[in-house]
Amino acid sequence: MHLTFRHFSAIRRHMLLAVAASALCGTPALAADKISVTASFSILGDVVRVVGGDRVQVNTLVGPDEDAHVFEPRPQDAKTLLASTLVVTNGLGFEPWAAKLIKSAGYKGEVVVAAQGVKARNMAPEPGHGGHAHHEADPHAWQNPLNVVVYARNIAQALAKVDPAGAAHYQANTEAYAKELVALDQWAREQISAIPKEKRKVITSHDAFGYFAAQYGVQFLAPQGVNTDTEPSAKQVAQLIRQIQREKIRAVFVENMSNPKLIAQLSKDAGAILGQQLYADALSKADQPGASYLQMMRHNLGALVAGMQRN
Ligand SMILES: [Zn+2]
Question: Which of 2, 127, 249, 275 is the most exposed place for a label (fewest CB within 10 A)?
Fold first, then answer.
């Protein structure tokens, strides 16, 4: 085809417009130009997506409704890591498989621990877990929204390191998100304060809510302890049933990524009512009520408050 000057100038105008549009947005024009980030689990993936905005492409190793405690990396996870510029983990012992995966994959890029600088809580004493558990950190720090502000800032800093041109973008996203997280914390306080103190008791299958409990003054009892890889003994379950009956606890919940059988049985034996599913260590699938961190926290709050009102 013979290109006339008119054609040529039209094409050139298109190109100029595309360049101008891309410069205006301050974002890479093509998906291939995006910063590839791998987050260890779904909740972290969501925080990276919020902080990174359209400059990042996020991969998540442990997906929605999956359990990071007992995750076993697959061969394609090593490939995902190698194709990344930044890897984000929670830390605090949440992903015991992560260091090995990073090493065996031969990943040499940046790694950021999102919970770095969070005031870690120790695990509650667990009878079945041996003495060592008492000194270990509780990894579920995201259950306090103010800790997620720390996560977001750590992630923003790491993204700015691998993509200095986006530093202002990451900072602006983080500060906007921090405002939403602070508002969520405030709302949660108001919701919980409407429940009489003696009614603020909840049963969950595994002990993922220590940070939430400390922040909002709610007592959580969990037969499975902090990890999901241990089953409670018959004696522990019997003790818990007696406690549920004695203290008239009606608020019993299962979490999305754990086996619901134990808690369903326990709830039945103790004459309690099973509440809505909680999102503890993983987001829900996109069409469910916990598809983002903010959504999952609002859902959990509503479910917990409704459950505690029955106590
Ligand atoms: Zn957990």
Answer: 2
pLDDT of residue 20: 46
Predicted local distance difference test score (pLDDT) of residue 19? 45
Is the pLDDT reported for residue 259 higher than 80?
no
The domain 196-309: what is its CATH number? 3.40.50.1980
Distance 226 CA to ligand 1 centre (A): 6
SS3 letters for 9-45? HHHHHHHHHHHHHHHHHCCCCCHHHCEEEEEEEHHHH
Q: How far, in Å, is the centroid of ligand 1 from the Cα of 5?
A: 65
* CA 31–ligand 1 middle distance (angstroms): 33
Domain range list for the chain = 28-186, 196-309
Cβ < 5 A residues, ion ligand 1 = 208, 281
Averaged pLDDT for residues 99-103: 97
Per-residue pLDDT at 60: 98
Q: Indicate whether 11 pLDDT > 50.
A: no
The residue type of 18 is A
* Cα 234 to ligand 1 centroid, rounded to whole Å: 21
Helix (H, G, I), strand (E, B) or coil at 208: coil
| Top CATH class, 28-186 | alpha beta
